[in-house]
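Journal club side-thread
Mid-discussion, someone asked how the predicted structure for our own chain would compare to the paper's figures. Pasting it here so we can look after the session.
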Amino acid sequence: MKAVSLILTGLLLSFASFSQESKQDSKIIWSDEFDQDGVPSEKRWSFEVGDHGWGNNELQLYTANKPTNARVQAGVLIVEAHADSSHPKGYTSAKLVSKGKGSWQYGYFEIRAKLPQGRGTWPAIWMLPEENRFGGWPKNGEIDIMEHVGYDPGKVHGTVHTEAFNHLIGTQKAGQLMVPNFASEFHTYAVDWKQGQMDFYIDGKYYFTFKNTGSDYKEWPFDQPFYLILNLAVGGNWGGKEGVDPSIWPQRLEVDYVRVYNQNPNKHP
């Protein structure tokens, strides 16, 4: 009995040591803490510009280097949409991308943000691939870490799109979690993307998994580097499904930080 006890003690100590090593192995490999006021870091972000609808009949003109629409202020990135009658579709906003400046194949992606509110708002924190390996969207894949549409307040979506699974054919793979104070408090939105599986979290609470079926790229095109996107859209096929409230603007997506880890710092095998 004593020998068995010693063996069990040894196993527990080994497991504790392994867990400690795993925790130490988790590290930040890319981040933006937004600790310098002014324009967003040119080393980390670029702007995508235009008002062509972005494939969803959206209304906003995305601008570049315009503090009204994107600025770092008091340690927070502010992406702000404004009503602006001087533009044909009536709104301006911003879309920041890390393309060419930060992309990763697998990792734990954590973004602390406060969301806009009101009918017609459509903020998103998401990822697209660096390369066009399979022939454009949705064949190359899309990872939506956080989406929220203002006409359905509090319901936050985590979604995966591929050629086989996408909203155009009603087969997208998604999970939802209610966040009642989405607009008044910061929350942490995250995806743990590993080889063969993605797990989605809000404030550390797991709510959705997407797994590799073992088929081909049509179902899992995610073994390649993806970059991050932060944007606030106005209207569109989804965000504007119940119209756009003209009285709510400006509205803002606020981001406290963006952190990319090599592995999940909170959960280990």
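Post-session note: DSSP finds two helices and 18 strands in the chain.
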